Amino acid sequence: FDISVDVSATAKCEAAASLFINDELYQAMNVYFAAPNQTANVTFPGIQLQKGNHTVKLLVETQMDSELANNSVSRIVSAIGKPRVLILEDSQNASYYLRNALENQDFAVETRTKSAALPLHILLDYDCVILFQLSKTSLNTAQEIQLEKYVREYGGSVFFITGTDEANVAALHNTLTEQ
Q1: Which pTM does this prediction carry?
Q2: Band of residue 168 on the pLDDT scale cut at 50, 70, 90
Q3: Cα→Cα distances 170→116, 136, 166, 173, 175, Å
Q4: I want to staple 72 with a disulfide (CB 3.0 to 4.6 A). Which of 59, 64, 107, 171 is the partner?
């Protein structure tokens, strides 16, 4: 993303604009004010942050400045990153086309086979879980309970893609997985 700020000066001058992220200098540039009471746009393009909360601060300094208190602005920025999707499948690469379609739409996708453990702390790393063409016996009771907690207690999303096999749809009816 880009950070863009309008900065003004009461006199003709040159100023240094410094962008700090989490108290570390990220980038600096010079800003020229050709006339008094001029406003200039300062843009820091292409900023990439890790997922989480970050403190972003812009500091503008000039040698002529007598009022340092009004030379900075700080904000907390929450970087959410790409949407993360977990696909659970019966056999490896069964969801190949779905995975590619999601990745082409800029989703971060991971696939696991049905035998993989599903502790809640792992599920919470994902924005969405897709159960891809799983049969009724694909998930054990412990896995079903973790998925239920993920949805009911933490607001996670679970989607079922059963394919063309109507037996898969019928087999999931009235199960903990369907709930």
Answers
A1: 0.56
A2: low
A3: 24, 9, 6, 5, 10
A4: 59
pLDDT digits (tens, 9 = 90+) for 140-157: 888 888 988 999 898 889
Q: Which structure tokens are listed for 32?
A: 């020229």
Beta bridge partners of 122: none
* Band (130; pLDDT cuts 50, 70, 90): very high
- Cα 170 to chain center, whole Å? 36
Q: How many residues does the chain have?
A: 179
- At 78 the pLDDT is 84
Structure confidence at residue 115 as a pLDDT band (50, 70, 90):
low
Sign of CA dihedral 23, 106, 145, 143: negative
Closest CA to 86 of 132, 47, 41, 46: 132
d(CA 93, CA 5): 47
Cα distance between residue 113 and residue 8, in whole Å: 57
